Amino acid sequence: MNNTDCCSLDGISCDPKTGKVIELHLVVGFLSGTLRSNSSLFRLQHLQTMDLGFNNLSGILPDSIGNLKHLRVLSLGGCNFFGKIPPSLGNLSYLTDLDLSDNEFTGELPDSMGNLNRLKELQIGLNKLSGNFPLMLLNLSSLTLADLRSNQFEGMLPSNMSRLSKLVSFTISGNSFSGTVPSSLFMIPPLIELDLTKNDFSGPLVLGNMSSPSKLAKESISAHLTSLDVGRNRLSGKLPKSLINCTQLELLNVEDNRINDTFPSWLRFLPELQILVLRSNEFYGPISSPLSFLKLRIFDISGNRFTGVLPSDYFSGWSAMSSVVDIVDYDQRMFRGASYPTYQKSVGLTNKGSNMEVVGRGFTIYKTIDVSENRLEGDIPESIGLLKELIVLNMSHNAFTGRIPPSLSNLTNLQSLDLSQNGLSGQIPPDLGKLTFLAWMNFSYNKLEDPIPRGTQI
Question: What global pTM score does this model have?
Answer without folding.
Answer: 0.90
